[in-house]
């Protein structure tokens, strides 16, 4: 039986956050740390940080020392969320994985092509700001720019963001604005071993290049 993370459960929102964070740590052996959350003031959603212009409402670190706070211990995770059960679930990149973050349309095109090519795939997240986030082995942030150049694109021409050491991503079921982060491809026993960025970069760059060209032609 496959182990899946983030499947819908009949739990309160705060319980879902805690259970997901514990499962990431215990089952996937990913480091986890708590972030900000959304306060609902009569339908007006605001980030707990209190900044009206918050660029990532409900989904950013609340401490500057968050890299040292992140833990892969389920016991420590439960202790942290007991202090603030509404906290979002954040995952540091550059440790167990890096991620490649692309526009949703390009990501869906690339994902379909990868499946046709039977490429190895790791988990893939979908975010409310219409992005797809592909999990790959650590080290992608250092090698992707050169890989993209070899394929004929200047990295600055593609809407492709690689997150590695010193960065993080919000994980399901974290709420961001009016939506929630979700799994497009859930973590399972079958994708425990992540692909190298080099295995996925060709379809990702091709799809991002097509989208960039389409935007220029509008």
What topology does this entry show?
Elements: H1 13-28, E1 33-34, E2 38-41, E3 44-47, H2 66-69, H3 74-83, E4 89-92, E5 98-103, H4 104-116, E6 124-127, E7 131-136, H5 140-150, E8 161-163, E9 168-170, E10 175-176, E11 179-180, E12 182-185, H6 197-217
Antiparallel strand pairs: 1-4, 2-3, 4-9, 5-7, 5-8, 6-7, 6-12, 10-11
- What is the count of helical runs? 6
Oligomer description: single chain
Helix content: 25-40%
The profile of the biggest β sheet is: 5 strands, antiparallel
Give the overall shape, derived from the CA principal axes: globular
Order of helices and strands: HEEEHHEEHEEHEEEEEH
Low-confidence stretches: none
Can you count the beta strands? 12
Mean pLDDT, rounded to whole units?
92
- Going by helix content, strand content and strand pairing, the class is alpha+beta
Terminal CA distance reads 48 Å
User: In which order are the strands of the major sheet placed?
Assistant: 8-5-7-6-12
Q: Into which percentage range does the β-strand content fall?
A: 15-25%
Rg estimate, integer Å = 17 Å
If you had to describe this structure to a student in words, what would you say it looks like?
- Pfam families: Prim-Pol.
- This is Bifunctional DNA primase/polymerase.
- This protein has a five-stranded antiparallel sheet with strand order 8-5-7-6-12.
- The mean pLDDT is 92.
- Helices cover 34% and strands 20% of the residues.
- It starts with 12 loop residues before the first helix and ends with a helix.
- By secondary structure, it is of the alpha+beta class.
- Helix 5 packs across helix 6.
- It has six helices and twelve strands.
- It is globular and about 50 Å long.
